[in-house]
Design a protein that fits this description.
heterodimer, A: alpha+beta, Aldehyde Oxidoreductase, domain 3, four-stranded mixed β-sheet, 4 helices, B: alpha+beta, Ubiquitin-like (UB roll), five-stranded mixed β-sheet, two-stranded antiparallel sheet, 3 helices, about 30% strand, globular
Chain lengths: ~160, ~80
């Protein structure tokens, strides 16, 4: 059996193709029996009175990628994974654009499901990203959601 | 001179703020150099402060010697 892959953690400032990345990741983890992936994308709100026209994510280089790498290491310590891929966009995106991709490969599926769920809950609530959206031509900063903190509490306050 | 970086919504308030400040400087001294609305915002309990990429447990302990980068971090809004 080949060794597990090191975690692949990326901060991206341009468009990316999650399907191609997941396909390559799965090929690179042939020993894994399961690959779980989550893709987050900018919501299209065609029926809303003032739909979101654009979303901008900003980061702070000294903290954001190191924080994502620490999160990946935390997940690797909790579950037996053959590989972990974490890709997050920054910059301006429009509805339909992918924002985040998390994929985990494991010998058995439950470890992969749990690791992706854990990484997403922490990315949403604890990672160093600031988000604003443009509606009716006006940019507005997005405040944290209470639900994100409730999601985090599922993992025992980690 | 220490460099100041304002993230998220704080960037919108930072138009008149200095980009660099002379050190040595403590937290109260730094607040005194900022425009009042910005000083009030960064003094709020939910704004964290990082010096050279390390987040301070208590921003009131800030002590700048000279060449640091100080980042003001409002609550994150989730990825």
């Amino acid at each position: 059996m080949s060794a597990a892959l090191p975690s692949d953690v990326r901060l991206l400032d341009g468009a990316f193709d999650p399907a191609a990345l997941v396909a390559a990741f799965a090929r690179d983890c042939p020993q894994a029996g399961g690959v779980v992936s989550f893709i987050g994308q900018v919501r299209a709100e065609a029926d809303a009175a003032d739909p979101c026209e654009a979303l901008e994510l900003t980061h702070y280089a000294p903290l954001t990628l190191p924080g994502m790498e620490a999160l990946a290491a935390d997940a690797r310590g909790r579950w037996a994974l053959d590989g972990l891929l974490v890709c997050h966009r920054v910059g301006v995106m429009v509805p339909g654009d992918p924002i985040v991709l998390v994929a985990a490969a494991a010998r058995h599926r439950r470890d992969a499901f749990a690791a992706v769920d854990f990484v997403m809950d922490h990315l949403k609530s604890q990672s160093w990203f600031w988000k604003r959206e443009k509606r009716a031509g006006q940019w507005r900063w997005i405040e944290p959601r209470g639900q994100d903190h409730a999601d985090l509490a599922r993992w025992g306050g980690a | 001179m220490a460099r100041l970086v304002f993230l998220g919504r704080l960037a919108d308030l930072a138009g008149d703020a200095p980009a660099r400040v002379a050190a040595p400087l403590d937290w109260a001294g730094l607040l005194a150099l900022l425009p009042p609305a910005l000083a009030q915002a960064v003094a709020g309990p939910r704004v964290r402060v990082a010096v050279d990429g390390a987040v301070l447990a208590d921003k009131a302990t800030l002590a700048l010697a000279g060449d640091e980068e100080v980042a003001f971090l409002p609550p994150v809004s989730g990825g």
